[in-house]
Amino acid sequence: MFLKQFYSDRGNKILIDPEQASLFAKEIAGDFNPLHDSEAKRFCVPGDLLFALVLEKYGLSQEMSFTFSGMVGRGVLLNFPQLQSDAFDISDDNGRTYLRVERSGPNVADKSLIEPFIRNYVAFSGPNFPHVLVPLMERHNVMINTERPLVIYEKMAFEFDHLNFSEPKLEGTDTRLDVNGKRGTALLHFAVNAGNATVGIGYKKLVISGMREYDHDAIQAFIENYLAGMERYKAAM
Questions:
Q1: Which architecture does CATH list for 2-236?
Q2: Distances (CA, A) of 171 to 29, 139, 152
């Protein structure tokens, strides 16, 4: 599958180096979060890449959920279990779990279905900032800490009516932000369409820490810097 360039096999383990992770974030997901830059001090592997690797290795099930419990940094060797079950963890040799996967229902390994679903999902998921999250925060008069932004990918889940479809397309359907003091929880809902029918639904959950009162000038300066970094990357290609 197209993901081979974004990880390396190390025996029965997987290593995702910073350059591979950064390339996936920018080229496939359109995600320019500085945490995914290969030289970032607090570098971490995009959660969407872990999600994609699970689908590549274990197939697409009718119902699936992905709960992220840790950030994968540099040099982490990941264990993808050989024995498949309805619930399993992606962890390291120290027993630290980074991703919990739960699934049920029929399962397919058809790459012609899985690859477009991965590409469509990460294209929906990756560019949440600034186009989705900033208007959502503005409506609630809150924003991220622009000096130390911390937006954590906590969970995503989906369910299909059936798996007998092709050429899936994702469409955002609803967004919600719940604010509790300096902490916010954003839910981004989506539908999966094939042809003229909706064949599935799902959501992505984000946790935002260190929230503060909305400051238009501060957030606009942050957005401009973010978009400028994106343009510099594209210009250098």
A1: Beta Barrel (2.40)
A2: 15, 22, 22
Q: What angle do CA 50, 123, 65 make, to 5 degrees?
A: 45
User: Which residue in this structure is represented by tokens 């606009």?
Assistant: 220
Ordered alpha helix ranges (H), 60-145? 111-125, 128-131, 133-139
Tens-level pLDDT at each residue, the chain (237 residues): 799 999 999 888 999 999 999 999 999 999 988 889 999 888 999 999 999 999 999 999 999 999 999 999 999 999 999 877 899 999 999 999 999 999 999 999 999 999 999 999 999 998 888 889 999 999 999 999 998 888 889 999 999 999 999 999 999 999 999 999 999 999 999 999 999 999 999 999 999 999 999 999 999 999 999 899 888 888 777
Distances in Å between the alpha carbon of 73 and those of 47, 67, 138? 11, 17, 31
Say if pTM beats, i.e. exceeds, 0.70: yes
**CA 232 to CA 235: how far, in whole Å?**
5
